[in-house]
Amino acid sequence: MKQLLYPDLNCPFPSQINKYIDILEEYALEWVLRFNLLADESTYKRFCKSKFFFLAASAYPYSNIEERRLQMTG
H or E segment at 65? Predict the structure, then answer.
């Protein structure tokens, strides 16, 4: 398989992460398990590696936990 190479991404703004990132990680996993969205162990591992919670925590560094939980559930 051919390896994809990505150029470095320069972002002139400092990276900021929501202080509730650990809670968001737990909540995301609980949510997909509650609705039985992970078909098998392989899917579970891929989901954990995807770190969707990190995207939410990065996009909204100053919001409170309830706002993030609502957005993660769609």
Answer: helix 65-72
